[in-house]
Structure formats: C-alpha cells, structure tokens
Amino acid sequence: ATAVPGVARGGSGPEPSAARLAVLLVEDNPADAELLSVRLEGSAGTGVNMPLHLVQAGTLADARTVLHHLAVDVVILDLSLPDAQGLDALHQIRAAAPGVPVIVLTGRADQSLALDALRAGAQDYVLKPPPDGHTLRRILRYACERQQLLMELDRAGQESKASALRWRILAELGALLAGPAGGVEAMAGAV
Asked: Which of the four, 19, 56, 76, 135, has the lowest number of CB atoms within 10 Å?
C-alpha cells in the first residue's frame, strides 16, 4: 500500500482505468490495513485479475487529501476512524468524492447499520475480517460497475426531464399559435 502524501492531481470517478484499479483504503488499524493489502495483492492471478494500486489513509482527513490529489476508482472505508465515526465518515467521504463508489468495512455485524450505510450511498458493506482476496476484488469491481450504471441512469433521467420540458414548451407554443384568438391569423392582422 502507498502512503498518503505526495500524490499527483487527477480526476476521480467510478470507471476504472483499463490499466489498474486505484483503491483508497481508509483504515486506522495497521493490522487490518495490512491484512486487506495482503489479501488483495495475493489474489492477483485469481480470475479477477485487474491490477490494483492500493493507497492507504489512516484518518478521514488523510483520505480527503488523497481524494483531492489522486484519481481513485473505489474507496474501502472503515467506519471507526479517529476523526469520524459511523455514517458520518461515509457522508464525509461521499461529499469529498461524490462519483466514487464506497465500500464500508467494519467490525460491527449490525444489520441496521449496514442498511443505513447502503441507503446513504455505500455500494457494499463488508465485515472484518475481510473475505479472501478474490472475493474482495470481485466486490471492488462490482461496486465500480454498479456506480457507473447509477451515474448513467442519473444522466439518462436528467436528459429525459430536459427532453420532456422541451416537448411541453413546444406543445404550449403550438397551442398558442393554433388557438382561436392567438393564432397566426391574429398576428398577421395586427401587422
């Protein structure tokens, strides 16, 4: 895993690059971070073979710095950080990188918290200790694909609303022009 400082500026988004998947791990426990790193790196040739670039941050403040300077494809976020706890950590990460999928990582097997995290925008909820590397890589890849689909749906919805508005304006304009007193004939008579 790479340390936080000294990264190059780049855009962030949900579509992983063809070369490698940039993963930000926000975890303050060095043992948990190392376990996750080892599992991800040890699963490189297991079918989900996209190379990874793992960057680790131990605090939310460090994570925001990384997100400001580095193009990140996906975030793995511990919900128990020194400077943010629970869903507050998720809300702050999503605010710092709204288009980047977030996978919540926690030691709490709390079904209510899991559902709340998903409702707040997390793509997945993974319990500690994390699953094997192959499963983790699949979770990362699927989170990126789901986020990309959600963004495409959002764009399509916005385009549909804009199109509907244009059609409504045209229909209203047509009704005005064809109406009994406001038609083209009335305008021609006024000239």
From this structure: 19
How far apart, in whole angstroms, are the C-alpha atoms of residue 162 and residue 109? 43
Using DSSP's 3-state secondary structure scheme, residue 61 falls into helix
Query: CA 35, 83, 68: angle at the middle one, nearest 5?
Result: 80
One-letter identity of residue 99: G
Contacts of 20 (CB under 8 A, 6+ apart): 50, 51, 52, 53
What are the two backbone dihedrals, phi and then psi, of residue 94, each rounded to the nearest 5 degrees?
Answer: -65, -35
- 103 pLDDT tier (thresholds 50, 70, 90): very high
Is the pLDDT assigned to residue 65 strictly greater than 80?
Answer: yes
Exposed, middle or buried, 143 (CB in 10 Å: 0-12/13-18/19+)?
Answer: buried
What's residue 15's pLDDT? 47
Global pTM value: 0.71
Q: Is 107 helix (H, G, I), strand (E, B) or coil?
A: coil
Least Cα distance to 43 among 123, 131, 146 occurs for 131
User: CA quadruple 120, 125, 129, 134: dihedral positive or negative?
Assistant: negative
